[in-house]
């Protein structure tokens, strides 16, 4: 037997595994690295976050990524180069964190790498009936594995599309597994570049969960701030706080049919970008929005579309607590508006569920890797086969 296969089998049978989860989201701001201790599988899964780091990308690297991300025409050579480079680079960042944490690579059972999404193309977005749902992540798992000498599981979203899904959002599989309460309904919301939430009915109610994107999270706000203020993001919501919401512009944005599509649904910055914004304003004949008001209006768009999506799945008597993760949680203007738009719902940090809110997405992929190694897979309504496992395995050698 190939010794790598034997080692894979040994790892899969361990009662507790040390797994590094990686997440680099649509905001392109850096790599989240979560060192997790995971025991059990399925509903019996227990996760302890041992260490976490969010490593920022420098400006030159971010600009190189942006040039090939969420745009229809790119240099194929640049995509190929970045696919390999990113794998090696993420491997280097992992090794640096392990040295800082005084953890040897040999102590890690596997790495779970989400990769960097450079294009997301569900059918409802590309509108080509003969073509499937599709999504593309770069940052090759073989290069991460070889660089770190650690077994790596990557490319999780491809099996989701192969089984008829849209490739996103995937957090719901793990949200349901880890955060469903016996008697309390819950909503877990992640505000990254795109906002998504999972509604988790209490186990006692025997109702299905719902996971969906709602529309833009930080992606439009960040893009506007970069273009108008030469900053990476609206720190502490200061720009939005200084501006006023332009009601006409907000109405123009919310007129998009996407917001009326039934849940669940998915999207990405391929759709919600500054070109989309400019097109909406142009069609509405709006030309006089100040820079501060522009950012305030986009922030309000995020808040209202999140709130309206959540309200659409609840009845008048249902007010489940809402737990928030992702970069948007750090924007006090956005969070204040959410609280005002959802006055009957208690909104708090994901930390109240036991995890750093910035680490949540990286932890999700660590748990997905654990399920690939030892679990029984996940049910997908669109799948024509038995339970589905996500991820591709790369051996170090």
Provide structural commentary.
The protein is α/β, with parallel strands linked by helices and 397 residues long. The chain has two domains: 201 residues, Nucleotidyltransferase, domain 5, CATH 3.30.420; 175 residues, Nucleotidyltransferase, domain 5 (2-Layer Sandwich), CATH 3.30.420. 38% of the residues lie in helices and 20% in strands. It has 14 helices and twelve strands. The strands form two sheets. Strands 1, 2, 3, 4, 5, 6 and 12 form a seven-stranded mixed β-sheet that branches. α13 links the parallel β10 and β11. α3 packs parallel to α5, α10 packs across α12 and α12 packs across α13. The mean pLDDT is 94.
CATH class of the largest domain, named Alpha Beta
Could you name the ranges where pLDDT drops below 50 across 5 or more consecutive residues? Answer: none
Tell me the structural class. Answer: alpha/beta
Overall mean pLDDT stands at 94
Number of domains: 2
The radius of gyration computed from the alpha-carbon positions, rounded to a whole number of angstroms, is: 21 Å
- Put simply, the count of helices is 14
Order of helices and strands: HEEEHHEHEHEHHEEEHHHHHEHEHE
